[in-house]
Amino acid sequence: MSSTKILFTDLDGTLLNKERNISCKNRQTIEKALKQNHKIVIATGRPLPSVLHLVEDLGLTSKGCYAITYNGGLIYDCYNNEAIFKTTLALDYVRYILDQAQKSNIHCHTYSNNYVISEKKTKELETYCSRIKVPYEIVENITTYLAEEPVKTVMLDLAGRDRLSKIQAEMATWCSGKINCYFSSSNILEFGPLDATKGHAVKFLCNYLDIPIENSIAAGDEENDISMLQAAGVGAVMANASNEIKKYGDYVTQRNNNNDGIAEIIEKFLL
C-alpha cells in the first residue's frame, strides 16, 4: 500500500470554482489519479446529502471511496453507503448556540439526516440551501424536534465576517474545551464536537486504509482546513486563500480554484 497516495480535498474555494462546478481539467486529473490507484477523498464542512451528488458525479463510488463531511463529524464509505465514523453535538450545546445567535439577530441552523433545520425562514437559510442543494425544514423548537443529536450547528451572515467574528470572540470562553468553533467561509461560523475536525478525519482514514500519513496530501483554503493541512504529509493551500491560511501550507498553488488548482496539486504530488 505504500505506493498509494491519498488526496483530501476541500470543496468550496478548492475543488469547486466560483460557479461551484468541477472543471474539466480537475475532473480529468482526478480520473487519471484514480486509474493509478491513488485515492481522492472529499473533505468538506457540507452535510452528507450535499456531498453525495458530487461523489456520484465524480465517480467516487467504487470500493475504497470515502467522503469526510460536516468538517470531519461524519466519515462516509461511498461504496457500502454507510458511516464509518460519526460524532455529535449535545442538544443543550445546540440550544445555547441557537440562543446566542438569536440574541445577536444572526441566522443559525442545524441538520437532520436529510434536511437543514431552522427555527426561522431567512434569506441566509434560503441562500445556503440553494447553494448546497439540500432542502430545509422550519420547526418551532429545534432541540425538542430533533430525534437525535446533530453533527454540527452553523451561524450564517450574508453581510460577511464582522458580526460572526464578534460572536466568536464572545463565545470563546464557553466553547473552550467543549466544542470547536471556526469559519468555513467568510460568512459561515461552524460549531462542532471536539473530535469533529478534518485533521482527525485525515488521521482516521489513513489508519483505516493502512496508508502512511506521509503519503497523504490535503488541499484547502479556509480556517476549517487548517487541522488537515497540519495533519497530512503535505498541506497544499490554494492561491485564493488568505495570507493567514497560507502560513499553514507546505505548498501554495500557483493556480487558484477557478483555474484548476487541484489539478496542479494532483500533477505535482500524486502522478
Keywords:
271 residues, alpha/beta, 8-stranded mixed sheet, 6-stranded mixed sheet, 10 helices, 14 strands, globular
Provide a descriptive summary of the structure in words.
The protein has 271 residues and is an alpha/beta fold. Helix content is 35%, strand content 23%. Helix 1 packs parallel to helix 10. It is globular and about 50 Å long.
Strand order of the largest sheet: 5-4-3-2-1-12-13-14
Q: What is the rounded Rg?
A: 18 Å
Q: Helix coverage percent of residues?
A: 25-40%
Poorly predicted segments:
none
Instruction: Please write the string of helix (H) and strand (E) elements.
Output: EHEHEEEHEEHEHEHEEHEHEHEH
Number of helices in the DSSP assignment = 10
Largest beta-sheet details: 8 strands, mixed
Percent of residues in beta strands: 15-25%
Query: What is the global morphology?
Result: globular
